[in-house]
Amino acid sequence: MTRLAEIPVIVVHDQAAQGCLPGALGGPATSMVLALLNEIATKLDQLAENGQESSIDLRWLIGLPQDFRLLRETLGEGEVAATITTIGSTRVQETAIPCVWWITHYDSDGGRLGEFVEITEAPEILRSSRQSIQAGLADLQVRCAELDSSDPFSSNLSTAGSPS
Questions:
Q1: What is the DSSP letter of 113?
Q2: What span, in angstroms and rounded, lies between the C-alpha atoms of 117 and 36?
Q3: What structural domains and CATH numbers belong to the chain?
């Protein structure tokens, strides 16, 4: 039998990962960050090809602060950000990569509950439900009616705009 140490090993440079190397961000990327960036690239390709949206849970990466920071810096920040406030809050930040969003959920005390990267045109948390669209339309109609009835220059007044 051959001993394990005698088996020849050849290291092949992964050219697919080369595009993800963040050299300007402070050194070589870890294999974990490269794996995540390649996963994001694959999911972004799926979104482009067939509209398949996806999400990557990053809560486990919080335990690796250098990898977490490197991934965040590599993805960068885009132009769009939103904060949703309910019992806790959620911060939605577009990354510098279109359709890649960094989502952070916080509890009511500001403690971080979760970190996700969503690959989508618009994150689900920012989308209105069909039920809320109808409720919003009804509310807007009520507001318009209130404005219309309180406006002395309203078109509802029969003498509006005519000389007396």
A1: E
A2: 10
A3: 21-126 (3.30.1370.140)
